[in-house]
Structure formats: structure tokens, C-alpha cells
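WARN  no MSA supplied for this record, continuing single-sequence
INFO  ligand: 6-O-phosphono-beta-D-glucopyranose
INFO  echoing inputs
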Amino acid sequence: MAFDLVFFGGTGDLVWRKLMPALFQAFRHGSLPEGGRIIGIGRDALSDAQYREQIAAKFEQVEGEKRPSREEFARFAALLCYQRMDLAQPADYTRLQARLAERETQQVLMYLATAPTLFATVCEQLAAHGLNTAKTRIVLEKPLGHDLASNRAINAVVARAFGERQVFRIDHYLGKPAVQNLFALRFGNTLFEPLWRREHIAHIQITIAEELGVEKRGSFYDGTGALRDMVQNHALQLLCAIAMEPPINTHADAIRDEKLKVLRALQRWTPETLAQHVVRGQYSAGSVDGQSVRAYREEPGVRPDSPTETFVALRTEIHNWRWAGVPFYIRTGKRLAAREAHIEVHFRATPHDIFAAPPGQANKLVIHLQPKDGLELHLLAQGQSTRGARPGGLSPVHLDLDFDKRFGRERVGAYERLLLDVLDGRLNLFVRSDEQEEAWRWVEPILQHWAADPLGPRPYAAGSWGPSATSAMIARDGFCWREEN
Ligand code: BG6
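INFO  complex generated
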């Protein structure tokens, strides 16, 4: 099946860091269909050969087994070519049109890895040049707007040029193997479903912690912040995967309908919950992994008096029969103590405790997304050893299912999986416009509250777990975060 994959933003960071390595892995695994051509679009005047050289230089930095050998890269590079474009110039779309008409293809994928401010122009120009045919699919990278109004404006322009089934809105967290396994655990097994509700679950924690700071993206990040960068999309998508009802089948809309219902049922914000259930933080200087690191406000591209948050923790509830009254906590931030992403499902304590079990040790299921990918089921058992356990007392133990060990580390990565899904026309792991709008509708009151709050974000030392108010927030409900247990 011959295809053309056109990368707008073809010399940008995302293409170098994520998309080209993912395509190369798909190529290496033999899953990229034959007859593909990958066209990078950028403003620089580059020949095809120069573009290939630039990509070869980036691949040199790839570590370990993922780096291609010279022969492998030469075979992959044969797919690559380059087209110079000024995205505001209609004439440049005419040249793109001519290039695409050079050969017969079954599919044309337009991947918009540019600043979202360009999405509207590109979509309008593609339509004006007849490049929105039935064989075209369009892939949109986040952030899709910076609030509900801008998101709707982008979706409206895209909808004028393309049908919803042609639009692939990426949230790369949905492509992570752990998220696939969460769907498999919940909807391919019966074990947990009877327990997966308010009667048995006390609370749920979603943590996405990064050790890295804002790297070279200071000026982008300073206009974005953690709420827009991570919560509106990745964290809410994880929450949907945890909380949604079983879909009637695996069709994209069946899944997306259920996720949308979760978003619609999220507790609405009030002045009280905004004040008590949301913590924003910003990292000050500190130490990560033994290295001193500077404060966020000293990062290149960041305003010295920036009010942008690099950390968010919040508490919410889902107002439906399954989840009423169960707190869901989300926290995410940069320059935290570890790179860890996991979801913890805390089950209720036994109704009558005959063993005098240690406090805070009720059963829990931990879904690890990174750095490891796996499941841990925490139980209490009668300790046989004389060390640690009191005679007659219970000790915490856990069953550990390590998917990396079980299935091997060379599994399909998030971007590889999502790119192959675009080629196959499979929309299951992509976000529909109404879902995305609902997520913006929910985070917008937080943005408005912050804009009017002169206190700004709370500082936290780089290398810590965020502002202390985060612990106080969860402690008010009688719970604590994973590392505090
Ligand atoms: C991106 C954010 O969407 O996700 C980044 O823009 C963040 O700021 C990244 O670092 C985290 O992704 P991952 O897959 O490394 O957890």
C-alpha cells in the first residue's frame, strides 16, 4: 500500500526526537507498509540529501540498540525526502500538490507537528489546493489550542476541510503499552470488574512525575504550564481509561463515547474546591539525581518573574453511580524526585479487622507506566519468617507482573504504535473533538482562578515531590501519596 507521509514541522524537535525514531523502529520491525515516502516540510533550503544527512546526524545520538546500523539507515533514508515551504504562501502548496501528484498512492497522511497557530492556515490551504481528498488523513499534535475557545476554533477550521474520521488527534499517552494493558486488564478479564467501583475502591491516584526540567522548550512552556501541557490531555485520558464504563465493542466511537461520559461527569469546580483541591507549584533551585539544578525562572526563555506552574496536584470526583464519592487525585510536575508514572487503585480496608493489620496497608493495584511497565497487586499475608512480622501479624507482600520481562523490552513504542494506527485508519487511540473540548471546559475554571489569584504558584525545591500543600490536600481525606506511606 503506497503512502505519502508529510511532516509539517519536518525539521522540528518532535520530528527529530520522536517521530523519525518511531518510524525507523516500524521500518525495522517490518511493519511499515511497502511503497512509503516520507516528506519533511520546513522553511530551510535543503535538498533531499541534506535532509537525510541531518536525520542521520540525529540518529547518531540515539542510544544503544535503537541506533540504526549504517546499512539499515541507508535503506530507511531511501524513503525520506524534503520540500521547502513557507506555510503562509499559497504557491508553496501548489508545489506540494505537484510533488504529491508525482506518484500514485493509496494514502496521504498530513502530520501537523508545527505550532498550533499554524493549524488553521495549513488546513485552509490544503483544502484550497484540493489536498483534502478521501485518501487524506490529518494528524494533529497537542497542544490543540490554549483554552476552550481556541480549541474550538481549531476544530472548526479542521472540520471545514476534513471529516472527523480523517482527523487523528494525538495524545501519545494513549499509545503507551501500559495504557493498552489497562484496557486489556479491565475489558479482557473479569477479575477486577466487580470490584471496580465505589463499594470497593477508596481512592485513586494518578502520578506523572518527571525529573527533567523544561530543557530547550522554556519559551513554549512558559506560555503553557503543566495544566495545559499534561493535565488537560495525558492525565485526563488516563483518568478516563481507569474510570470509563466497558465499551460495547472496540470501535473508536464506542470507546470515545465512554471516555466522553467520564469527562462530562467530572465534578464541576466551585470557589471552595478551586481553593482547596488544586495546588500549583513552580520549581526553585535544588538537586536532582545528585546534580544541582537551577530554578525554573532561571531557565532560558522563561520570564524572570514567570507565574507559570511546573507542577499541578488536584482532587476531583466523578458524579455517576460507579464512582460517586471516590476521590481521584492527579499530580504531575517537572523536576520532581523521580521519573515515574503510575496509577494506584486503593481498595477499601477490611470491614472488620481481626488481624490488627498495619494501618494504611489495604489492598492496592498499581499500574506502572514508566520507567517500568507492569502491574503490582498489594496484599497482606501471614509472614512465615520471624523477621519483620509479629507472630500472628500480617505483612504486606505484592504480586509483581513485569511486562518488560514478560514480553521483552523491544515492544512497540507509543509513537510507533500511533503512527501505524494512522496508516491503518484506526482511530481508537486518538481523541475526538468533543472529548477534547470537554477536557478544556473542565480545566478552564482552574486557569481563570489562577489568572485572578495574585499569590501565584507555590515554590518547591527541584528534586522534591512538589509543594507541601499537596500532602496536606490528600491528608485532609485521610490518605497519603505513595512515597509518604
Ligand atoms: C509531552 C509534554 O506531551 O509529554 C512534555 O509536552 C512531557 O512536557 C512529555 O515531558 C512527557 O512524555 P513522556 O512520554 O516522556 O512521559
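The pocket of 6-O-phosphono-beta-D-glucopyranose is lined by residues 210, 229 (CB under 6 Å).
INFO  checksum written, moving to next record
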